[in-house]
Specification:
Helices cover about 40% and strands about 20% of the residues. It is α/β, with parallel strands linked by helices. It has one domain: Peroxisomal Thiolase, Chain A, domain 1. Helix 1 packs across helix 3, helix 4 packs across helix 15 and helix 8 crosses helix 12. This is Thiolase family protein.
Length: about 400
């Protein structure tokens, strides 16, 4: 959808292992930062959207996580809408908040997302991801993973999927094998994504992991599900992020000196394609977002995308139109997605290094891109950044993501 909303303020916690903090504490930190950044008070908010996916499983907070967290800082009376949409929960909250402003219903809206994923019982954490597929047909999910791998000439061991690792790592591994078979992509090229994001993450004080990794170190790390090694898989994390959105009228009234405009934000769910050549949900969202914003992939200054695994990022290069199909490996190898390259991708460190508290991830992407467009990204600043894209997906049904949001921001 073509949007006409402006980002007045952003905030986020450092992502990581916050065993001593609750969902409420993390949310409050991010929201207070965003309000301060905007120069607004809680009483100025007219509505709030809260993204969260796992609170019911991990901390037992069901039904009202948004109201619970926001009441603590005096945010009540206004509509508070809880959004659960797998790993796209926060980006969906952002999309809906933008749409309400664009529709003229509100002038000031909060979009926030928070998650607690660390738990002493790892099975609880893994169950969150296992629940983001068709649980009534779970055997078919595993069968599809095995079939995809076998078609690429590999046999996979599903032992431990969902109990020792997220089942999504097996899904991503099968996608990687398929790409390797079809295009000749190498494991080292997937490792190059992780190494590149480790460099970006080393420059981000809010990233969960900040140490530098070489391609060789990524390749020699413990294997999770071939061809994925540990640094090729996004870690679980705790954290929160928030953004205050305002209408064009309110932006003028506030005299925003360096506003970031949400030019488009497209939300779609996946479907069953009729042919192998049919564009999937991510590609379709991207094409619509480009059209509504009046830009193309060649116009982008920087991108934050859903690198839940290293192969995901490489494949998204192609689906977002940064390069042709099958050229993702060469794209990262030649440095086009690194700071200083043609279009830096995941300057925050991405999910691989910044971390992936799933209910916060989508808005954390918006925080990074807003700071890039406003020249506030310090040591990882993209010079002259003017147009940015965020892509965030969640869940998996049959052969594609269950939900995807693509948003384009302009300076």
């Amino acid at each position: 959808m073509k949007q006409n909303a402006y980002i007045a303020g952003v905030g986020m916690t450092r992502f990581g292992k916050h065993l001593d903090r609750g969902l409420k504490s993390l949310t409050i930190e991010a929201v207070n930062q965003a309000l301060t950044d905007a120069g607004l008070d809680a009483k100025d908010l007219q509505a709030a959207y809260m993204g969260n996916a796992a609170a019911g499983v991990i901390v037992g907070q069901v039904c009202v996580p948004g109201q619970m967290a926001l009441r603590e800082i005096g945010i009540g009376q206004i509509p508070v809408i809880n959004v659960e949409n797998a790993c796209a929960s926060a980006s969906t909250a952002f999309n809906q908040a933008c749409t309400m402003i664009t529709s003229g219903l509100y002038d000031v809206v909060l979009a926030t997302g928070a998650e607690k994923l660390f738990h002493s019982d790892k099975l609880k954490t893994f169950s969150v991801f296992s629940g983001a597929v068709d649980v009534e047909n779970y055997d078919a999910v595993e069968q599809q993973i095995v079939a995809r791998a076998e078609a690429a000439g590999m046999k996979v061991d599903m032992d431990g999927a969902g109990t020792k690792r997220s089942v999504f790592m097996d899904i991503y591994a099968s996608m990687a094998l398929e790409h390797m078979k079809k295009y000749g992509t190498t494991q080292a090229q997937f490792a190059a994504v992780s190494a590149k994001n480790s460099f970006h993450g080393s420059l981000n004080p809010r990233a969960q992991y900040q140490e530098l990794l070489t391609v060789e170190q990524v390749l020699s790390a413990p294997e999770i599900a071939y061809p994925l090694t540990l640094p090729m898989c996004s870690p679980i994390g705790d954290g929160a992020a928030a953004v205050v959105l305002v209408s064009e009228r309110k932006a003028r009234e506030m005299g925003l000196s360096d506003p970031v405009k949400v030019a488009s934000s497209v939300l779609r769910s996946g479907w069953d394609p009729q042919s192998e050549d049919e564009a999937g949900v991510t590609e379709t969202c991207a094409m619509e977002a480009y059209e509504e914003a009046g830009v193309g992939p060649e116009d982008l200054s920087c991108i934050e995308l859903h690198d839940a695994s290293a192969p995901s990022e490489l494949i998204y290069y192609e689906q977002l139109g940064l390069c042709n199909k099958g050229e993702g490996g060469r794209f990262v190898e030649e440095g086009h997605s690194k700071l200083g390259g043609r279009v830096p991708v995941n300057t925050s460190g991405g999910l691989l290094r910044k971390g992936h508290p799933i209910g916060a991830t989508g808005i954390a992407q918006i925080v990074e891109l807003t700071e890039q467009l406003q020249g506030r990204a310090k040591g990882r600043q993209v010079e002259g950044a003017r147009i940015a894209l965020a892509e965030n997906g969640g869940g998996w049904i049959n052969t594609d993501a269950a939900a995807v949001v693509v948003s384009i921001l302009t300076k």
